[in-house]
Design a protein that fits this description.
Helices cover about 35% and strands about 20% of the residues. The protein is α/β, with parallel strands linked by helices and about 350 residues long. The protein has two domains: about 60 residues, 2-Layer Sandwich (Alpha-Beta Plaits), CATH 3.30.70.1140; about 260 residues, Alpha-Beta Barrel (TIM Barrel). Helix 3 packs across helix 4 and helix 10 packs parallel to helix 11. The relative contact order is 0.12. Bound molecules: phosphoenolpyruvate (PEP) and manganese (II) ion. Phosphoenolpyruvate binds next to loops. Manganese (II) ion (MN) binds next to loops.
Length: about 350
């Protein structure tokens, strides 16, 4: 971090800044120019925040010179991280598609969905047992019973399961049911206590982007998980809030190349929650693969009209199958497998 002093800064004011930097265990380098004095903090400046200095007399501004995230940064880990999910590699050359319903409804719905997801060529399955709904009066998910149904359905097709964890008190249950990938939803991207807890386990975590989170906030949220020791993190862009009402969210495709530059971790896209309509999902999914996403998280329901949650945006089994075909062609065109 560098602290730029005001032109009129006095020696005692500079000494206070130096003292504060040393209190944090960092060294100091003072550069006296003709107009300004700049004080550099040498060492791990991530402990410091510009606000610590901004309010001190004589300080003009304090600026970070290194990125606030480290473990997730490509700067420190140039090669791509490939996450192994029970033999399914995510983040490598193969684009992976996670398909399945928004929520776990019944055993037969899940059995049917698992078969269709597998037949379409997806290697992982999604389904929510704990649902973050806007209204407390709508279906909230079957909870633990839903995990059991999901496990049973996915087992037959050897599909690893992806499901959302909302409450830290359920983490042990998720481990008991051997959930293969823990999803942290958009509403919990900055639930730091939850992030710290999933940081202590080794299960892969899909970290969805907060609905109005900046890339930097998102990377810092991932850093919370990584700092606990769990480096199996997958970023999932699912659209951000905007003024537009013609679709549910704006899919930020730009986030893909930006994240691929900033982090070595896999990046996937959820076209379903972005557009919010089934007919939009194929176009968004194709854009995602073309932009370099490592995978997709797509909602598919055996009978979309009967879905208990997000019925509008679920593909039917035939649509998923047709989409997989066109995605495969795009993947091949850019030198990837599917
Ligand atoms: C979901 O994947 O079912 C979900 C609730 O997504 P999001 O957190 O992106 O809204
Ligand atoms: Mn949904």
């Amino acid at each position: 971090m560098i602290i730029v002093m005001e032109r009129s800064a006095t020696e005692p004011q500079m000494e206070s800044v130096v003292r504060k930097i040393r209190e944090f265990g960092l060294d100091v380098n003072i550069s006296r120019g003709t107009e300004r004095t700049v004080i550099g903090a040498i060492g791990d400046e991530r402990k410091l925040e510009p606000e610590l200095f901004g309010a001190m007399p004589g300080v003009e501004q304090a600026i970070h010179i290194v990125k606030p995230y480290k473990i997730v940064a490509r700067e420190w880990h140039p090669q791509d991280t490939v996450i192994d999910i029970h033999g399914v590699a995510l983040g490598g050359n193969t684009v992976q598609v996670i398909g399945g319903p928004c929520s776990v409804e019944t055993q037969s719905q899940m059995d049917e969905a698992a078969q269709q997801v597998s037949e379409a060529g997806c290697r992982l399955m999604r389904g929510g047992a704990f649902k973050p709904r806007s209204s407390p009066y709508t279906f909230q998910g079957h909870g633990v019973e839903g995990l059991a149904m999901f496990r049973q359905a996915a087992e037959k097709h050897r599909l690893p399961i992806v499901t959302e964890l909302m409450d830290v008190r359920m983490l042990d249950t998720f481990l008991e049911y051997d959930v293969d990938v823990i999803q942290i939803g958009t509403r919990n991207m900055q639930n730091f206590d939850l992030l710290k807890e999933v940081g202590k386990v080794s299960k892969p975590v899909i970290l969805k982007r907060g609905m109005s989170a900046t890339i930097s906030e998102w990377l810092m949220a991932a850093e919370y998980i990584a700092a606990g020791g769990n480096h199996n993190i997958i970023f999932c862009e699912r659209g951000v809030r905007s003024y537009e009402t013609a679709y549910r969210n704006i899919l930020d495709v730009t986030a893909v190349p930006v994240l691929k530059k900033e982090t070595h971790l896999p990046v996937i896209i959820d076209p379903s929650h972005a557009g919010g309509k089934a007919w939009m999902a194929p176009a968004l999914a194709r854009a995602a693969v073309a932009a370099g996403a490592d995978g997709l998280l797509i909602e598919m329901h055996p009978h979309p009209c009967d879905a208990w949650c997000d019925a509008d945006q679920a593909l039917n089994p035939q649509e998923l199958k047709a989409l997989m075909e066109s995605l495969r062609r795009i993947a091949h065109a850019i030198g990837r497998e599917m």
